[in-house]
Amino acid sequence: MSRTNLAHKTEPITAGEYLEFERAAKEKHEFIGGRIVAMAGATDRHNVIASNVFLEIGIQLKRTKCRPFASDMRVNAQRGNYFYPDIVVTCGERKFEDAKKKDVLTNPTVILEVLSKSTKLKDRNEKFEAYILLESLTDYVLIEQDLMRIEHYSRIDEKNWKVRIYAAADEEMIFESIKCKLSLADIYAED
């Protein structure tokens, strides 16, 4: 089956078919419930916020056993889903679905998504429901780009999560799992 036909196929495809398709693609696609979903481009504001977060976390994690990755690291999010988080942090040994290709991470510790109008529902619902099944995940963060508001979900135990909402520039979000903190002023800084 041709690549074009695979992307427009109406019946579900396998994860293997998706990975073969995606590894040859020029654009990024996520894989949700057996379907290939093209990713939309990001706005300037989205990129500024994601860059700010990546830089701040990267500086704090330098010379630790944790590493941040920007939006090109694919994550196997369980339930047959593959996503490209805006920022993913993994600690200790990085585990990959394919030890040779090393392009599908299976043990994220922290995942951060910058919300847009087109992805907001998917990030809050489908992605969250898949991510919380990952035993390694300790924190899931949703960052609004159009207003100063962040939802920080942190794991309490195997089945329970707590959420904290941040909405003021003088607040700091603390990640106990990676020994990191981010101020909202730094996250939303424009210069």
Summarize the structure.
With about 190 residues, the protein is of the alpha+beta class.
Order of helices and strands: HHEEHEEEEEEHEEEEEH
Question: Shape, please?
Answer: globular
Instruction: Note poorly predicted spans.
Output: none
How many strands?
13
Radius of gyration: 17 Å
CATH architecture of the largest domain: Alpha-Beta Complex
End-to-end Cα distance = 48 Å
Q: What characterizes the major β-sheet?
A: 6 strands, mixed
Verbal overview:
There is one protein chain. This protein is an alpha+beta fold and 191 residues long. The protein has two domains: 1-39, no CATH class; 42-187, Alpha-Beta Complex (tt1808, chain A), CATH 3.90.1570.10. Helices cover 26% and strands 29% of the residues. It is built from five helices and 13 strands. It has helices spanning 3-7, 15-24, 44-61, 120-131, 184-187; strands spanning 29-32, 35-38, 66-69, 74-76, 82-83, 87-91, 104-105, 110-115, 139-144, 150-155, 161-166, 172-175, 180-183. The strands form four sheets. Strands 3-6-8-9-10-11 form a six-stranded mixed β-sheet, sandwiched between helices. It has a three-stranded mixed β-sheet with strand order 5-4-7, with no helix packed on it. A hairpin with a 2-residue loop joins strand 1 (29-32) and strand 2 (35-38). The model has no long low-confidence stretch (mean pLDDT 91).
Brief descriptors of the model:
26% helix; 6-stranded mixed β-sheet; globular; 3-stranded mixed β-sheet; tt1808, chain A; 2 domains; alpha+beta; 191 residues
